[in-house]
Amino acid sequence: MPLTPLDIHNKEFNKGFRGYDEDEVNEFLDQVIKDYEMIIREKKELEAHVAELTEKLGHFTNIEETLNKSIIVAQEAAGDVKRNAEKEAKLIIKEAEKNADRIINESLSKSRKIMIEIEELKKQSKVFRTRFQMLIEAQLDLLKNDDWDHLMEYEVDPILAEEEEARA
After folding, report:
1. Per residue in 113-164, pLDDT tens?
2. 40 vs 10, 34, 50, 155, CA distance in Å?
3. What is the C-alpha separation between 38 and 26, in angstroms, rounded?
4. CA distances (Å), 89 to each of 77, 99, 101, 102, in order?
């Protein structure tokens, strides 16, 4: 057990023959008591300071742990956001590709139908032209026919014409 300033103060030495000078010993002991009291006070102050610093250190350690946990949570959240964004981007791209394929297929299908219709119209136009040409040629043949000239040669009796009109 460590000595206290009171232990030093109350310490008495046995007197012997040719012992130390009592005043000198008492003076030295008084100085030791003062120094020892000062050391004990400093020790208590330092212990209080150490306790305060330990408490602050604990507080900062808690803050550090909280910050580390927050950083980990933020990193995980950022990773989740990134993964979700990548998934969404892939879905958007996939949907866009489907729509593009559908639009292209519809366009090709419409283009084919239009080409078929154009070919059909060309055929019909050709048939119409051929038939119209044949009709005109047939009419021209009728006009060029000698029968018209023979009709001009016939003479009609005016009396017969009036009788014919009366019957009608």
Report:
1. 999 999 999 999 999 999 999 999 999 988 887 776 676 676 766 677 677 7
2. 18, 10, 15, 168
3. 18
4. 18, 15, 18, 20
